[in-house]
Amino acid sequence: MKRERSIPIASEGDAAAVFGGDSLMGRLRDAALEVLSPTRCAGCERPGALICEACLSRIEVIDPAHACTRCGAPFGDMLCTECGVASEEASEGESAAAAAPEAPEARAVDRCLAATVFADPVPRIIRTYKDAGERRLGALIAELMFDAAEHAEQVVPERYGGLLRDADAVAFVPVTAAAFARRGFDHMELIARSFSGLSGLPLVDALAKHGSADQRALGRAGRMERSRDAYEVVAPVGGLRLLLLDDVITTGATMRAAATALRAAGAAHVDALAFARVW
Protein backbone atom coordinates (compact mmCIF):
# COMPACT_ATOMS: atom_id res chain seq x y z
CA MET A 1 0.00 0.00 0.00
CA LYS A 2 1.27 3.45 -0.88
CA ARG A 3 -0.18 6.68 0.43
CA GLU A 4 0.51 10.30 -0.39
CA ARG A 5 2.84 12.14 1.97
CA SER A 6 3.62 15.81 2.32
CA ILE A 7 7.38 15.22 2.57
CA PRO A 8 9.65 17.89 1.10
CA ILE A 9 12.01 16.55 -1.53
CA ALA A 10 15.24 18.47 -1.34
CA SER A 11 16.45 19.69 -4.69
CA GLU A 12 19.69 21.52 -5.33
CA GLY A 13 17.82 24.82 -4.94
CA ASP A 14 16.09 24.15 -1.63
CA ALA A 15 18.26 21.57 0.15
CA ALA A 16 19.77 24.18 2.46
CA ALA A 17 16.34 25.47 3.48
CA VAL A 18 14.97 22.02 4.27
CA PHE A 19 18.03 20.47 5.87
CA GLY A 20 19.63 23.36 7.69
CA GLY A 21 22.37 25.72 6.63
CA ASP A 22 20.39 28.82 7.67
CA SER A 23 23.53 30.85 8.40
CA LEU A 24 25.30 32.76 5.62
CA MET A 25 28.40 30.60 5.98
CA GLY A 26 26.25 27.47 5.89
CA ARG A 27 24.51 28.57 2.70
CA LEU A 28 27.80 29.47 1.04
CA ARG A 29 29.29 26.13 2.03
CA ASP A 30 26.29 24.22 0.71
CA ALA A 31 26.32 26.19 -2.55
CA ALA A 32 30.01 25.45 -3.05
CA LEU A 33 29.48 21.75 -2.33
CA GLU A 34 26.56 21.66 -4.77
CA VAL A 35 28.81 23.00 -7.54
CA LEU A 36 31.61 20.55 -6.74
CA SER A 37 29.35 17.56 -6.12
CA PRO A 38 25.74 18.02 -7.28
CA THR A 39 22.99 16.44 -5.20
CA ARG A 40 21.99 13.03 -6.48
CA CYS A 41 19.08 10.80 -5.55
CA ALA A 42 20.03 8.27 -2.88
CA GLY A 43 17.78 5.72 -4.53
CA CYS A 44 18.78 5.95 -8.20
CA GLU A 45 21.57 8.58 -8.45
CA ARG A 46 19.61 10.89 -10.72
CA PRO A 47 20.86 14.47 -10.20
CA GLY A 48 18.75 17.15 -8.58
CA ALA A 49 17.24 15.74 -5.36
CA LEU A 50 18.20 13.69 -2.32
CA ILE A 51 15.27 11.40 -3.11
CA CYS A 52 13.62 11.94 -6.45
CA GLU A 53 9.86 11.81 -6.96
CA ALA A 54 10.12 8.48 -8.80
CA CYS A 55 12.01 6.79 -5.95
CA LEU A 56 9.77 8.31 -3.30
CA SER A 57 6.73 6.89 -5.09
CA ARG A 58 8.34 3.41 -5.08
CA ILE A 59 8.82 3.32 -1.30
CA GLU A 60 6.42 0.72 0.06
CA VAL A 61 4.67 2.18 3.09
CA ILE A 62 3.50 -0.26 5.76
CA ASP A 63 -0.22 -0.03 6.50
CA PRO A 64 -0.53 0.29 10.31
CA ALA A 65 -3.97 -1.33 10.18
CA HIS A 66 -2.34 -4.60 9.10
CA ALA A 67 1.10 -4.41 10.71
CA CYS A 68 2.21 -6.66 13.56
CA THR A 69 2.12 -4.47 16.65
CA ARG A 70 4.86 -6.53 18.28
CA CYS A 71 7.57 -6.50 15.61
CA GLY A 72 6.39 -4.00 12.99
CA ALA A 73 6.14 -6.54 10.17
CA PRO A 74 3.57 -5.92 7.44
CA PHE A 75 0.65 -8.31 7.11
CA GLY A 76 0.73 -9.20 10.81
CA ASP A 77 -2.88 -8.43 11.70
CA MET A 78 -3.87 -12.09 11.45
CA LEU A 79 -0.63 -13.88 12.24
CA CYS A 80 2.91 -12.57 12.18
CA THR A 81 5.19 -15.33 10.98
CA GLU A 82 8.28 -13.52 12.30
CA CYS A 83 7.36 -13.36 15.99
CA GLY A 84 4.80 -16.15 15.82
CA VAL A 85 1.93 -14.41 17.54
CA ALA A 86 -1.48 -13.19 16.52
CA SER A 87 -2.34 -9.51 16.76
CA GLU A 88 -4.75 -7.80 19.11
CA GLU A 89 -7.53 -8.47 16.62
CA ALA A 90 -7.23 -12.25 17.03
CA SER A 91 -10.28 -13.91 18.55
CA GLU A 92 -10.49 -14.52 22.27
CA GLY A 93 -7.39 -16.26 23.47
CA GLU A 94 -6.64 -17.83 20.11
CA SER A 95 -3.03 -16.79 20.01
CA ALA A 96 -0.03 -18.59 18.62
CA ALA A 97 1.88 -17.20 21.60
CA ALA A 98 0.34 -19.92 23.71
CA ALA A 99 2.15 -22.50 21.64
CA ALA A 100 5.65 -21.19 22.39
CA PRO A 101 7.12 -19.70 25.57
CA GLU A 102 8.42 -16.14 25.35
CA ALA A 103 11.94 -15.02 26.13
CA PRO A 104 12.20 -12.69 29.17
CA GLU A 105 12.75 -9.65 26.96
CA ALA A 106 10.00 -10.53 24.46
CA ARG A 107 7.54 -7.95 25.79
CA ALA A 108 10.02 -5.20 26.63
CA VAL A 109 8.65 -3.34 23.59
CA ASP A 110 5.01 -2.48 24.19
CA ARG A 111 4.18 -1.69 20.55
CA CYS A 112 6.23 -1.54 17.40
CA LEU A 113 5.69 0.33 14.14
CA ALA A 114 7.84 0.48 11.01
CA ALA A 115 7.26 3.13 8.36
CA THR A 116 8.38 1.23 5.25
CA VAL A 117 9.28 -2.18 3.89
CA PHE A 118 13.03 -2.73 3.49
CA ALA A 119 12.87 -3.03 -0.29
CA ASP A 120 14.21 -0.98 -3.19
CA PRO A 121 14.91 1.95 -2.95
CA VAL A 122 14.99 1.95 0.88
CA PRO A 123 18.21 -0.14 1.30
CA ARG A 124 20.12 2.20 -1.02
CA ILE A 125 18.81 5.25 0.83
CA ILE A 126 19.95 3.81 4.17
CA ARG A 127 23.39 2.85 2.83
CA THR A 128 23.84 6.30 1.32
CA TYR A 129 22.99 7.86 4.65
CA LYS A 130 24.96 5.58 6.97
CA ASP A 131 27.93 4.44 4.92
CA ALA A 132 28.35 7.18 2.32
CA GLY A 133 27.79 9.94 4.89
CA GLU A 134 24.96 11.84 3.18
CA ARG A 135 23.83 13.37 6.48
CA ARG A 136 21.10 15.51 4.94
CA LEU A 137 19.07 12.33 4.58
CA GLY A 138 18.69 12.15 8.36
CA ALA A 139 16.10 14.91 8.44
CA LEU A 140 14.16 13.36 5.55
CA ILE A 141 14.12 9.91 7.16
CA ALA A 142 12.92 11.52 10.39
CA GLU A 143 10.04 13.14 8.50
CA LEU A 144 9.02 9.84 6.95
CA MET A 145 9.05 8.19 10.39
CA PHE A 146 7.09 11.04 11.96
CA ASP A 147 4.56 10.90 9.13
CA ALA A 148 4.10 7.15 9.72
CA ALA A 149 3.60 7.58 13.48
CA GLU A 150 1.15 10.44 13.03
CA HIS A 151 -0.78 8.49 10.39
CA ALA A 152 -0.97 5.37 12.58
CA GLU A 153 -2.32 7.36 15.52
CA GLN A 154 -5.02 8.87 13.35
CA VAL A 155 -6.24 5.88 11.33
CA VAL A 156 -5.92 3.03 13.87
CA PRO A 157 -6.10 4.59 17.36
CA GLU A 158 -7.13 1.22 18.79
CA ARG A 159 -3.70 -0.12 17.78
CA TYR A 160 -1.34 2.85 17.85
CA GLY A 161 -3.21 5.54 19.76
CA GLY A 162 -0.89 7.62 21.93
CA LEU A 163 2.26 6.57 20.09
CA LEU A 164 3.23 10.25 19.90
CA ARG A 165 0.60 11.93 22.04
CA ASP A 166 1.27 9.92 25.21
CA ALA A 167 5.06 9.72 24.91
CA ASP A 168 7.15 11.70 27.38
CA ALA A 169 10.34 11.66 25.32
CA VAL A 170 12.16 10.21 22.33
CA ALA A 171 15.16 7.89 22.72
CA PHE A 172 17.25 6.20 20.04
CA VAL A 173 19.32 3.08 19.48
CA PRO A 174 22.93 4.35 19.40
CA VAL A 175 25.91 3.08 17.43
CA THR A 176 29.01 1.64 19.03
CA ALA A 177 32.08 3.77 19.64
CA ALA A 178 33.82 1.94 16.79
CA ALA A 179 30.97 2.72 14.36
CA PHE A 180 30.97 6.36 15.44
CA ALA A 181 34.71 6.60 14.83
CA ARG A 182 34.36 4.96 11.41
CA ARG A 183 31.46 7.10 10.20
CA GLY A 184 32.12 10.28 12.12
CA PHE A 185 28.54 10.56 13.35
CA ASP A 186 25.73 8.61 15.00
CA HIS A 187 23.13 8.20 12.27
CA MET A 188 20.27 7.59 14.71
CA GLU A 189 21.13 10.58 16.86
CA LEU A 190 20.73 12.88 13.84
CA ILE A 191 17.39 11.27 12.98
CA ALA A 192 16.22 11.47 16.59
CA ARG A 193 17.12 15.15 16.87
CA SER A 194 15.10 15.96 13.75
CA PHE A 195 12.25 13.76 14.97
CA SER A 196 12.27 15.54 18.33
CA GLY A 197 11.92 18.89 16.56
CA LEU A 198 9.03 17.64 14.43
CA SER A 199 7.13 15.99 17.26
CA GLY A 200 7.87 18.49 20.04
CA LEU A 201 8.99 15.58 22.24
CA PRO A 202 12.22 16.07 24.20
CA LEU A 203 15.17 13.91 23.20
CA VAL A 204 16.73 11.71 25.90
CA ASP A 205 20.20 10.44 24.96
CA ALA A 206 19.64 7.48 27.24
CA LEU A 207 21.61 4.57 25.82
CA ALA A 208 25.22 3.60 25.20
CA LYS A 209 26.10 0.54 23.13
CA HIS A 210 29.00 -1.74 23.92
CA GLY A 211 30.88 -3.93 21.45
CA SER A 212 32.19 -3.19 17.97
CA ALA A 213 30.79 -5.68 15.46
CA ASP A 214 28.44 -4.76 12.62
CA GLN A 215 25.34 -6.95 12.89
CA ARG A 216 24.38 -6.77 9.23
CA ALA A 217 26.37 -9.92 8.42
CA LEU A 218 24.82 -11.93 11.26
CA GLY A 219 21.87 -14.30 11.08
CA ARG A 220 18.89 -14.31 13.43
CA ALA A 221 20.54 -16.34 16.20
CA GLY A 222 23.73 -14.29 15.98
CA ARG A 223 21.83 -11.01 16.26
CA MET A 224 19.90 -12.26 19.27
CA GLU A 225 23.07 -13.35 21.06
CA ARG A 226 25.07 -10.23 20.15
CA SER A 227 22.31 -7.88 21.32
CA ARG A 228 21.98 -9.32 24.82
CA ASP A 229 23.48 -6.99 27.44
CA ALA A 230 24.78 -4.69 24.67
CA TYR A 231 23.07 -1.55 25.99
CA GLU A 232 23.69 0.55 29.08
CA VAL A 233 21.32 3.26 30.27
CA VAL A 234 23.27 6.47 30.89
CA ALA A 235 20.47 8.97 31.57
CA PRO A 236 17.51 8.98 33.98
CA VAL A 237 14.45 7.30 32.45
CA GLY A 238 12.51 6.32 35.57
CA GLY A 239 8.75 6.56 35.06
CA LEU A 240 9.03 7.81 31.45
CA ARG A 241 6.96 6.66 28.50
CA LEU A 242 9.54 6.47 25.71
CA LEU A 243 9.37 6.25 21.93
CA LEU A 244 12.50 4.36 20.88
CA LEU A 245 13.80 5.00 17.33
CA ASP A 246 15.95 2.84 15.06
CA ASP A 247 16.55 2.74 11.32
CA VAL A 248 15.96 -0.93 10.43
CA ILE A 249 14.28 -3.85 12.19
CA THR A 250 15.52 -7.22 10.96
CA THR A 251 14.83 -9.70 13.76
CA GLY A 252 13.78 -7.23 16.44
CA ALA A 253 16.69 -8.28 18.65
CA THR A 254 18.22 -4.80 18.79
CA MET A 255 14.97 -3.06 19.69
CA ARG A 256 14.14 -5.65 22.34
CA ALA A 257 17.60 -5.48 23.91
CA ALA A 258 17.55 -1.67 24.03
CA ALA A 259 13.99 -1.64 25.40
CA THR A 260 14.89 -4.27 28.00
CA ALA A 261 17.69 -2.04 29.29
CA LEU A 262 15.35 0.96 29.43
CA ARG A 263 12.67 -1.01 31.27
CA ALA A 264 15.24 -2.36 33.72
CA ALA A 265 16.28 1.25 34.42
CA GLY A 266 12.70 2.16 35.30
CA ALA A 267 11.06 3.30 32.05
CA ALA A 268 7.31 2.86 32.43
CA HIS A 269 6.54 2.14 28.77
CA VAL A 270 8.59 1.69 25.59
CA ASP A 271 7.11 1.90 22.10
CA ALA A 272 9.37 1.35 19.09
CA LEU A 273 9.43 3.13 15.75
CA ALA A 274 11.70 2.24 12.82
CA PHE A 275 12.20 3.59 9.33
CA ALA A 276 12.16 0.14 7.68
CA ARG A 277 11.26 -3.45 8.39
CA VAL A 278 13.10 -6.30 6.67
CA TRP A 279 10.53 -8.73 5.31
Jot down its keywords.
single chain; 279 residues; alpha/beta; Rossmann fold; 2 domains; four-stranded parallel beta sheet; two-stranded antiparallel sheet; 10 helices; 13% strand
Word description of this protein:
The model is unreliable at 4-21 and 86-104 (pLDDT under 50). Strand 5, helix 10 (253-264) and strand 6 (269-277) form a beta-alpha-beta unit. Helix 5 crosses helix 8 (187-199) and helix 9 (220-227) packs parallel to helix 10 (253-264). This protein starts with 14 loop residues before the first helix and ends with a strand. By secondary structure, it is α/β, with parallel strands linked by helices. The protein folds into two domains: 15-58, no CATH class; 111-277, Rossmann fold (3-Layer(aba) Sandwich), CATH 3.40.50. It contains ten helices and six strands. Strands 1-6-5-2 form a four-stranded parallel sheet, with helices on both faces.
- Here the CATH topology of the largest domain equals Rossmann fold
- From N to C, what is the helix and strand string? HHHEHHHEHHEHEEHE
Largest sheet: 4 strands, parallel
What is the CATH first-level class name of the largest domain?
Alpha Beta
The rounded distance between the terminal residues' Cα atoms is 15 Å
Give the count of helical stretches.
10
Describe, in short, the structure shown.
With 279 residues, this protein is of the alpha/beta class. It has two domains: 15-58, no CATH class; 111-277, 3-Layer(aba) Sandwich (Rossmann fold).
